Amino acid sequence: MNSAKPDNRNLPRMPALFIGHGSPMNALEDNEFSRAWAGLGQSLPRPQAILAVSAHWQTQGTWITAMPQPRTIHDFYGFPQALFDFVYPAPGSPALAAKIQAEMPFIQLDQEWGLDHGSWSILCHMFPNADIPVLQLSLDSNKSPEEHYQLGKALRWLRDEGVLIVGSGNIVHNLQAAIWRDTAHDWAVAFAERVKRLIADGDHRALIKYCELSDATLAIPTDEHFLPLLYLLGLQDEGDKLSFLTDKTTLGAIGMLSVQLG
């Protein structure tokens, strides 16, 4: 990667986020999660752009959206029509996508995807005017957890370019064990607490090796919702203030913990 960076001394170093996004219905509902996301958006410095790493875009290779106007993707079924009618019309940024590719040539430019609900269901509360350019970065299915973590590290320079990087997933995500009310299995709560403790302790190694954690096969039967957390850990610099938001496990086995760096 090219180490030469432009002079951005007038830009604040952006925080970085991992958001537990949960049900797509959070986009429409007024609840503790949507209110927390709205408050978070008001508390942050205004980004020049947003780079979202969503659990819901898995690819062969690493891709970044590069279209001027990404479409709103409704990648779910069985929800009310109002959710399918919802549009988050944020612009994209082909120029920023090209700049990222110039720094990291293995990232390929995408003209097809858009914004899936892992991105727009939270951003619609954080930035309801949809006036900040949003790009999505895919999860390469061929990468190991360590490689996802290292890619997060490689993206650190964007924080000094005014780019807000947002990982979107859930630290516990097992729909087969879902209970469709505000409750949670004991093992799901215990796993979420263990992950929170490891984040607070800065134990990135244990989190990269999450498969070795007790109850990991129940809490993370597939890893796409956990991997965006590894990007956040890779983005962490020494001295970053660490904050926890929406610290709750609900719907049986959905961990809604969110984390802010900086």
TrEMBL record:
InterPro entries, sorted: Extradiol_dOase_DODA, Xdiol_dOase_suB
EC number: 1.13.11.29
Domain Extradiol ring-cleavage dioxygenase class III enzyme subunit B as annotated: residue spans: 44-253
Gene3D superfamilies referenced in this protein's UniProt entry, alphabetically: LigB-like (3.40.830.10)
Required cofactor names: Zn(2+)
A Pfam family that the UniProt record links to this protein: LigB
CDD domains the UniProt entry points to: 45_DOPA_Dioxygenase
GO molecular function, one term: stizolobate synthase activity
Alphabetical UniProt keywords: Dioxygenase, Metal-binding, Oxidoreductase, Zinc
UniProt xrefs under NCBIfam families: PRK10628.1
PANTHER family assigned: 4,5-DOPA DIOXYGENASE EXTRADIOL-LIKE PROTEIN
Family recorded in the similarity comment: Belongs to the DODA-type extradiol aromatic ring-opening dioxygenase family.
The protein, known as: 4,5-DOPA dioxygenase extradiol
Species this protein is from: Methylomonas rosea
